[in-house]
Write a structure and sequence with these properties.
This is TetR/AcrR family transcriptional regulator. With 213 residues, the chain is an all-alpha fold. It has ten helices and no strands. The protein has a domain of 135 residues: Tetracycline Repressor, domain 2 (Orthogonal Bundle). The protein is elongated.
């Protein structure tokens, strides 16, 4: 095999490993990743996987980078090319979670709680992805002439995270429709008109909330 062929084969293996790593991490967290587990699941040698990544932390960082690039390709680029980028971005994020591009839903919503109190390179990478999300929403809100874009960005991310969490915890896809209603109200309607927005005819979340915890 030529040197170029070996490099291409190594890159294919790297992509395969990282895709599986992101799938696992979206449901079980980044700490669940190990070189041995990935080698076993994918039928690769541990030494081969180790040669590609070197350490668990490097594997985690590469997995975060792959997940971020997936969001850019699936959500951000289509939104920026649309006539209504802010709404398209919100809808794209909801659809990304709803379609289970990764089995656990939103990759970053799954891994943030693991590292929010743990300084280090992995936390820095996750935090930077979150800052980019907030910054992009705020910029698009500013471009649309909406007031207080930073506050709006905070609320939008909160709604996206809530929909992802509710869909996973309650196995309830109506959470995405509820988030769409709330996002449209927040982005497009003046203050004081939220009561006029229709809500989905589903009582599962309300019923769940009525139970004593």
């Amino acid at each position: 095999m030529t040197r170029d062929g070996r490099l291409e084969r190594g890159e294919q293996s790297r992509r395969l490993i990282l895709r599986r790593a992101a799938e696992i991490a979206s449901a079980e967290g980044l700490e669940s990743l190990s070189i041995g587990r990935l080698a076993g699941e994918l039928g690769l040698s541990k030494s081969g996987v180790f040669a590609l990544f070197g350490s668990k932390e490097d594997l985690q960082l590469a997995t975060v980078a792959l997940a971020q690039q997936s969001v850019v390709d699936e959500v951000v680029r289509p939104a920026l090319a649309s006539a209504d980028p802010l709404w398209t971005l919100c809808e794209g994020w909801l659809s990304y979670s709803e379609r289970r591009v990764f089995p656990g839903g939103c990759f970053f919503a799954s891994v943030r709680p693991e590292f929010d109190g743990r300084p280090g390179r992995v936390r820095d990478a996750i935090a930077e992805a979150g800052r980019k999300q907030l910054s992009l929403i705020a910029r698009l809100a500013r471009d649309a002439g909406l007031p207080d874009p930073e506050q709006l960005a905070f609320e939008v991310v909160a709604l996206l995270d809530a929909a992802n969490a509710a869909s996973a915890l309650y196995d309830d896809a109506s959470a995405y429709d509820r988030a769409r209603v709330a996002l449209r109200a927040r982005i497009a309607m003046p203050t004081g008109t939220l009561s006029s927005v229709a809500t989905p005819n589903d009582t599962s979340i309300a019923s769940a909330g009525s139970s004593t915890i």
